[in-house]
Design brief:
mainly beta; Jelly Rolls; 5-stranded antiparallel β-sheet; 9 strands; 3% helix
Length: 144
């Protein structure tokens, strides 16, 4: 039997829980074990951002073991880290605040991590990051 629905062919994991990110050092995301899945789509959900100087850089790393993750080659990403982040400038709802962005990983390493690095934050920025593991080797996947 072919399972054509998305619900049975994915698994979600929290990378960075919803909350205010006010640290200039950013926030390391949870390391995702993608064993048994063909790829990962990271979903970045940015809330209200009022400070025009706030910037959030996205950094994706991968590796064969969790202790030696390195920056992912651009060829393993669908989209770019720059487009998944938030740049300095005027705030427009749906573009630079109150917006959801995504970044895909199609590399071959078992472990992958998406983190937030902040170059400037003068006020807390609400953000959450979720990983959607897709293309399972065995379907349907368990719920949740």
């Amino acid at each position: 039997m072919t399972i054509r629905d998305m619900h049975s062919n994915m698994r979600t994991k929290t990378v960075i829980k919803a909350g205010a990110n006010a640290s200039a050092a950013g926030q390391a995301g949870k390391i995702i074990d993608r064993q048994g899945y063909g790829g990962v789509e990271f979903i970045f959900n940015y809330g209200e951002i009022t400070a025009t100087d706030a910037t959030i850089a996205v950094v994706v790393k991968d590796g064969d073991v969790t202790g030696t993750l390195v920056s992912v080659a651009d060829s393993y990403l669908l989209g770019t880290e720059v487009l998944a982040g938030i740049a300095v400038g005027a705030r427009v709802s749906g573009t630079t605040k109150n917006v959801t962005k995504r970044l895909g990983y199609v590399g071959v390493k078992r472990y992958v991590q998406a983190s937030l690095g902040t170059a400037a934050v003068s006020a807390a920025v609400k953000v959450a990051v979720v990983a959607v593991l897709h293309s399972p080797q065995v379907a349907p996947t368990d719920n949740p």
